[in-house]
Amino acid sequence: MSNLAKNLLEIEKLCLSVCQKFDGHNISPILRKQVESGEDIWDRRNWTGHLTASAIVINSDASTCLMMGHKKLGFELAPGGHCDPYEQPHISAQRELFEETGVFSAEMAHWHGVNQYCPIDIDTHAIPNNTTKGEPSHFHHDFRYLFILTRNHDTILNETEGTWLDWLPISTLKQRYPRVYSRMKVIN
């Protein structure tokens, strides 16, 4: 079995796990079709869609969340980005968190580990074309993981990725990531 086939099998398991853990969650037909047809969804030049991962970071009392102003999209997002080739999404989320914010001490919610790194959410969303980079519109299949920062940690904005970085009220998650917000109570 090739590396691609093995890794697609892992993604298929994660998709199934999310649907089993969270009643009513539906995997995007686009992602499902790409996995079933054996497409390389780690390839950033796959203009149908490719993998990303986000780190949803909350403080220990769940009153605030770490968000950043996305330079290209122009609105607040959780830290995250593209999965490296054949990198599993939970590893990507951790790596992106550190690369974009300097945070290395946030702990992934225990629930993820005991559930074979099942994400709290998988969201497929459209990305507009970027004429500067010569990229057509496409989809991101974003695997989302919850992290808890239990102690103060200085954050360092990666200015190539964002315009600002700050702790915002937890209600921001309710607006930007409603499924994550509602599922936090279940897993934490």
How does this model look, in words?
Helix content is 32%, strand content 28%. It is built from 6 helices and 8 strands. A hairpin with a 5-residue loop joins β2 (64-70) and β3 (76-77). The chain is globular and about 45 Å long. The termini are far apart. The model has no long low-confidence stretch (mean pLDDT 93).
How many domains comprise the coordinates?
1
Got a strand count?
8
Unreliable stretches: none
What is the CATH level 1 assignment? Alpha Beta
What is the CATH homology-level superfamily?
Nucleoside Triphosphate Pyrophosphohydrolase
The CATH topology name reads Nucleoside Triphosphate Pyrophosphohydrolase
Order of helices and strands: HHEEEEHEHEEEHH
Structural class: alpha+beta
* Helix percentage: 25-40%
- Beta-strand proportion: 25-35%
Number of distinct helices: 6
Query: What is the mean predicted local confidence, pLDDT?
Result: 93
What are the key terms here?
single chain; 188 residues; alpha+beta; Nucleoside Triphosphate Pyrophosphohydrolase; 8-stranded mixed β-sheet; 6 helices; 8 strands; 32% helix; globular
Write the layout of secondary structure elements.
Layout: H1 3-21, H2 29-36, E1 49-59, E2 64-70, E3 76-77, E4 80-82, H3 89-101, E5 107-108, H4 110-114, E6 121-127, E7 138-149, E8 162-169, H5 171-176, H6 178-187
Parallel strand pairs: 1-7
Antiparallel strand pairs: 1-2, 1-4, 2-3, 2-8, 5-7, 6-7
